[in-house]
Amino acid sequence: MKKPFAPSCERNSGPIHNVLSNYLGDKKRLLEVGSGTGQHAVYFASKFPHLTWITTDQPTYHQGIKMWLEEAKLPNLEGPLSFKLGEDSFPANNIDVVYTANTFHIMPWEMVEELISLAGANLLEGSLFIVYGPFTYNGEYTSKSNEEFHLNLRQMAPHQGIRDFKNVHEQFEKRGFKFQGDIAMPANNQILIYKK
User: Fold this and answer.
1) Whole-number average pLDDT of the chain
2) Domain ranges (residues) in the chain
3) pLDDT digits (tens, 9 = 90+) for 71-107
4) Class of the 26-195 domain?
5) Which of 7, 10, 66 is nearest to 35 (CA)?
6) Three-point CA angle 33, 28, 87, nearest 5°
7) 57 vs 82: CA distance, rounded Å
């Protein structure tokens, strides 16, 4: 198997790091939900050596993630752990950050709710939940390209689609999280930050 590569990870790692560096200084254990190729994990673990970065995904992605992790040989990288929403319980203890990128518009809405619920039940007080990806606001797209992306997602699978900020925000508040920020990112994406 050839090591997987996502061009979007290559493009967005730098801008995401610039935001994360403002929030992760005192954090110790981060759980990445939906590690995909493993590229983000390797990039960010190298930038935050004080932080244990724990990769998770469905088993079908594990081989590719392992290839990235084994090549990087970073002491603060762990996993990949199996984490399939709706089937698996929260996969690690003493987590003080959950980070997920480009997953909310791929997974069914019920799984978005499940993930936020699991985080609310398992994270330490003061922990952060950081989400990267596109969102709509009051049903309005932030760009024409995001509207087209949403329609393409729906054509591929009816359960997929860009989520509205209001719905996501309500789920976080319901599970005991407080809103910390909504930061505009390149390519019409956002970073949402919530604190337990």
Assistant:
1) 96
2) 26-195
3) 999 999 999 999 999 999 999 999 999 999 999 999 9
4) alpha beta
5) 66
6) 25
7) 6
